[in-house]
């Protein structure tokens, strides 16, 4: 299975770039599954259902979220109507929506996508390791699902590395999100799981993690609440990675970063 994962989409410039590029990427890279993190798609804070629908129409299969999941309050009441939008699985029981979804591809193959959130330097949620292990316990990679993608939305690199190792051999891809900065450590772990500490963001990198520089810098310089943060609006870079898996095992065969447009040096998968 050929899988594309794109990191946090930030604001209009990020989502416009994703929507413009996805149909061509799906065709040229012969993608079977596209997963994007949408927690900042709505003006930097949260996700609206109409933006989600635009992302699905452009070729997204599943949208994951994170600590900004509920910034758009309307999504709280709507997430239950759209199983392809998932929020971190380790929110407390009773939280609207689901933390995982099994999607069927047009050719009948199935993929499980899971979203969990880390706890280091973040809100105190339930144990993400236990949450993901419980979900994976209900599926068998290579038997009941052909691929498993886990988005670990977390601040700490250490927590993401640990998640990669815990799931090595049980997931096709474990990828971090939330820091909005792509890491250069993409690799296939010894057990066959593709791993990258952070996918980076789809947004304007001439910014402070996607938000306008002046207001963001002023907060650091003055340590006072200032003007509201607004997404930067320059040309966005797409950032993420592509993985090709073996359907018989669900494990990764090849992995390569994808970055295009905007301020980042471009790189495209060559397989
Ligand atoms: Fe984010
Ligand atoms: Fe986040």
What does the secondary structure layout of this molecule look like, with pairings?
Elements lengths: L1 E5 L4 H18 L4 E5 L11 H9 L4 E3 L9 H5 L21 E5 L5 E8 L10 H9 L10 E7 L3 H11 L5 E5 L9 E2 L5 E3 L16 H10 L15 E8 L6 E9 L11
Parallel strand pairs: 1-2, 2-3, 5-6, 6-7, 7-9
Antiparallel strand pairs: 1-10, 4-5, 8-9, 10-11
What CATH architecture label applies? 4-Layer Sandwich
The sequence of SSEs as H and E is EHEHEHEEHEHEEEHEE
Number of helices: 6
The CATH class label is: Alpha Beta
What is the number of strand segments? 11
Biggest sheet statistics:
6 strands, mixed
Q: What fold name goes in the CATH topology slot? A: Purple Acid Phosphatase, chain A, domain 2
Helix content: 10-25%
The structure class reads alpha/beta
Distinct small-molecule ligands in the complex: fe (ii) ion
Protein name: YmdB family metallophosphoesterase
Keywords: Metal-binding
Active site: 68
Organism: Gluconacetobacter diazotrophicus (Acetobacter diazotrophicus)
Features:
271 residues; binds fe (ii) ion; five-stranded mixed sheet; globular; Purple Acid Phosphatase, chain A, domain 2; alpha/beta; six-stranded mixed sheet
What this model shows, in words?
The protein has 271 residues and is α/β, with parallel strands linked by helices. The protein contains six helices and eleven strands. The chain has one domain: Purple Acid Phosphatase, chain A, domain 2 (4-Layer Sandwich), CATH 3.60.21. The mean pLDDT is 97. It binds fe (ii) ion (2 copies).
How is this structure best summarized?
With 271 residues, the chain is of the alpha/beta class. It has helices spanning 11-28, 49-57, 74-78, 128-136, 157-167, 213-222; strands spanning 2-6, 33-37, 62-64, 100-104, 110-117, 147-153, 173-177, 187-188, 194-196, 238-245, 252-260. It has a single domain, classed as 4-Layer Sandwich (Purple Acid Phosphatase, chain A, domain 2).
